[in-house]
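Handoff note, outgoing to incoming analyst
You'll be picking up this chain. Sequence as last confirmed:
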Amino acid sequence: MFNIKMRIYRHKNLLYNIIMSDNIIEQIQSKQELIEKIQKWVTLDSQLKIVSEKTKQMREMKSQLNSQICDYMNAHNMAQNKINISDGELRIHEKKEYSSITFGYVERCLAELIKDKAQVNYIMQYLKDNREISTCSDIKRTYKKPE
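Most recent structure output, in case you need it:
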């Protein structure tokens, strides 16, 4: 799989697009080439939107089926059973799902450990101020609102 990053920058009033993919760098040489690259980008973006929507629907359907299957198997004391399928087997297992570590969670935990609210606030502000931040150029697509 290729790792592709796009960067757009200006140099001497010329617009450049550098595509870095496994150490291959291509520069756009003309306005026509820029137009072609933009058209290709828009086409890919549209296709990805369709695939993403379809993937979301499929995940929702799979989740519903998962709940229905697990409920049935648990209700009929089949939770320990294995179901053979063409390329393996299915079985129910319990999994732990941890919530994300958020600033709110960290603050609540610190408040339980440290009674001085000023110290908790100081630590929270320090954590917020010293997060790693990376910046890169990206293309953002907006859609026209239907009239």
